[in-house]
Amino acid sequence: MAEPFLSIQHVRKSFGTNTVVQDFSLDVEPGEFVSFLGPSGCGKTTVLRMVAGFEEPSAGKIVVSGKDITRLKPNQRNVGMVFQAYALFPNLTVAQNIAFGLKVAGMPKADADRRVAEMLDIIKLPQMGDRYPYQLSGGQQQRIALARAIAPKPKLLLLDEPLSALDAKVRVSLREEIRSIQKKLGITTIFVTHDQEEALSISDRIAVMYGGKAEQVGTPFEIYNRPATKFVANFVGTLNVLEGTVTDAASGKVRVNTQEVSLKGKLNGSKSGDTLSLALRPEAISLGRQPGRDSSLSGEISEVHFLGSVIRVRVGIGGSTVSLDTFNSPATPPPAVGEKAEISFSSGDMLVLH
Amino acid sequence: MKTGRFWAWVVFALGAAYFFIPLIATVEFSMRMRRGTYSFDAYQIVLGDARFQATFGYSVLAAIFTIIIGVLIVVPAAYWIRLRLPQLRPIVEFITLLPLVIPAIVIVFGYIRMYGSNSPLPFLASDRGTDLLLVIGYATLALPYMYRAVDTGLRTIDVRTLTEAAQILGAGWGTIITRVILPNVLIAVLSGAFLTFAIVIGEFTMASLLNRPAFGPYLQNIGANRAYEPAALAIIAFAITWGCMSLIQILSRFAPRSANRPN
Amino acid sequence: MTDLSLSDQTIAGKTAPPSEARALRLPTQWLGVAPFFIFAIMFLILPTLYLMLGAFQNGAGEFTLENIIALSQPTIVAAYWISIKISLASSLIGAFAGLAIAIAIVRGGLPEWIRSATLTFSGVASNFAGVPLAFAFLATLGRLGLATVILNTVFGLNIYAHGFNILSFWGLTLTYVYFQIPLMVVIIVPAIDGLKKEWGEAAATLGATQTQFWRMVVIPVIWPSFLGTVILLFANAFGAIATAYALTGSSLNIVPILLYAQIRGDVLHNPHLGYAIAFGMIVITGLANVFYIWFRTRSERWLK
To answer: Tell me, what's the ipTM?
Structure first.
């Protein structure tokens, strides 16, 4: 494994008696795109601001390319940052905004102009150089902000919820654009968001944060499919939770409501009589018996939501409800509320939450 | 950061000194009337002075009429402009700013020459007419403040939607204005009113040039002839201004929040 | 690209009733604004125009430039000059001091109560002008004023022996500043509040020092409101008479006092010269505003 580009080591931050970040550590590889994902107040923005230099850690250190930058001022760190509220300078044109960092660094005007034109091309707004920020839409402003942040070729790009202020469509297109620009330039990036879909779709790795700590760090696939903690499982993606009681720990038999499922090898030392929270992703469940799915439960359809290509069905099983998605098929009518139904799944997809 | 805060304190302290020393000095001076000891003699003399009572009463009355005229002129105009004639807004805003640019002495000079006893509109021919002209002049001076206050009030309540809602519910114009608009802008109108009061109560130039027995010319007269009473009057005037501004602040707490505005 | 924010006006324009309905409603529509316009024309615009025309007429009502030329006599020129100097000095001092205080209370990291207390006090002090203000400064810096006496007895500094006089240029300027500073504070604090914290952070991550950030962003952003307020302060001081009159009587020859004396007693022995003086005052405050509007339209490009 190569030496990490950015290394956040046992960083802690308190404001007065209030500790917002406790012992956070993370190594980021060069060119990697890492998301900090978590609910508001989980400390993700504070960690980002410590990397940027706006907050000083109460303990721990931050190392970039082997150099300790913990006490360096923000303007000496050579990081690029994009803010939620764009933060474009209103008195400067788009081109002047992008050139800001270059001008401050003393780059000759001709070089700066060339770089600005290059940036405008990258963000696909080549004609906008002479506009003022207020003349642009939110999505355009945020792309300018991105161009401004990367124009001085920073070693590290920090994105602080850059998509939160935008509307849904722009969000999706801009996040794809951010990712492709990031890949093209190979710039190491930290992306702070509370939106799990955003984090899952563009990250190399995700650090799910809660209560000032990293609950789990892993690839989107790992985070989603193998959540390490109950919090991660609940926060990332939709989850159906069923309460179960272990009836036979040795053979992995668990009773859910009045029915029995077999979860061989997943019980991690639970004893007979223990109650467990069992979780299933909606896409891991099918309606009716399917080949290759080894377990099933029966219940009654309680709700049907027609969403177009997908039909979301809720099935009541005893006291709990399970949500699942089936594809719309023009030939067959959707299931009706009140019908008896059987759901099937692979016991291997069942998450046992501790 | 540390040095920034230090300088902020220095600036604040210097400012506080500049603003408080004259107040302290004036209080001190106003209490020096009796030799060798501090007393409220100057205040007693001033407050007991029949001319003080008369001129102060006159100015209070003038202020009240000024407020009434100001409200009658500004509220309908501001309302109509918000509702139906937004294209007039720049013109009206320009006009309301004029009194900040044209000195009061120039305006009153114009009145004296235009509305003299030989003119088609001889305001100055009678005392009542002159009183009216003074009140009109005051309303002109207060125009920028009154308009701004009312317009801000109307903006926060979104008159257009309120009016349309009232119309759909079957309200006529009279009902809309008295039951919907006025109660909602009352706070703003009152703020403008107290500001007007603060401006008008001690006004000197217009009252003096129109020869009206108002509080301003009385203050000036006392200043030219007495030693300690002016200081007492200055403190009283400061207290009145303070009172007006405090009332505006208190009122602003009751002002409707812009909750019913979509953005 | 379609996400252009519409101003109130364009929205109102779009939803306004069609022209047919508008024509029908015309009388009632104008009824609402009629009192305002009649009032403004009769008591603001016509009197001012009357004086401005009078400045170009002689006693017989014929056109003449004599009154304007007569403004060049030394007393009048001196009066204009000292008025301009006092207004300029008090507005600039007031503006910079007010800006410093505003920055200190908004950005200086002072406790929150200082900010609200300062704003409340500024609201009061900006309206505390006229005769009572003169009394307060006489009680402070007059020959027997508290500050004068304390400086003399405690610090051994006799300011009057050093040429200071409350009835002078500096005396009046110092007094005017008492309402100029708070006026600046009241107007400029919202502008400083409008400076977003993220701008500073964005500039910092782009490598800018605090000084560069101020030079390239903060000052250009605040500048239009600042200049506009300076002009307002200038006009405010230029037309003020009560403070000066109560403070100095007619010993300080500023334009408003000269005009006051002229209106009361025709001291210049030419009624139309009064018109010319008033005209001159309007021209000066008007020019200041024309300059401001010109400047603003220049910087308007980035202002919404």
So the answer is: 0.87
